[in-house]
Amino acid sequence: MTHVLAFFDPRYKTIAYKNLEINEILEPIRNNFPDSALSNLPSNNSTSIFVQRLSSVRQQRNANTDELLKYWESADASFDIEPLSWWHAHSTEYPILSKMAQNYLSVQASSVPCEQLFSLAGNVVSKKRNRLDKDTTRACLCLRSWMIEGIE
User: How far apart are CA 140 and CA 134, in angstroms?
Assistant: First the structure.
């Protein structure tokens, strides 16, 4: 998983893989490519349609590989850009990779923020305040965070 995540960070992609060959780098990514064309294969016994669709699957895989190589050979992004913003800006250039990157990069690296939120919610909804409505609880948590951030 970390191999794939590092690949999708356009700032560090070449730094993370200095001592690997290109096949070692790209193979895990190729294995995770969505085979949407495979799901369109017919379930009937029509051989000619099956062969046509199979060749379109091969063409799709070649297009995927071309997109992969094009991204790999592109220049690294500047260090001040956020990876998700970069992928959004390049979504027309790399349509499949940008969708994959958004899926992989949107996963939170740690559960600490979630645990902090549950801890804060536990302070609001306590044994003595266990009958608060969900909207009231949400309002209390939002107000607290806005006060901390200085939002008026």
Answer: 10
How many alpha carbons fall within 13 Å on the CB side of residue 63?
14
CA distances to 44, 116, 120, 135 from 131, in Å: 58, 22, 17, 12
Distance CA 87, CA 152 (A): 33
Predicted confidence (pLDDT) per residue in 45-96, tens digit: 444 554 455 455 455 555 556 788 888 888 888 888 888 889 999 988 888 8
Radius of gyration of the chain, Cα coordinates, nearest whole angstrom: 23
Query: What does the DSSP 8-state code read for residue 125?
Result: S
Q: Is the per-residue pLDDT at 39 higher than 50?
A: no
CA distances from 94 to 64, 113, 146 (A): 9, 31, 38
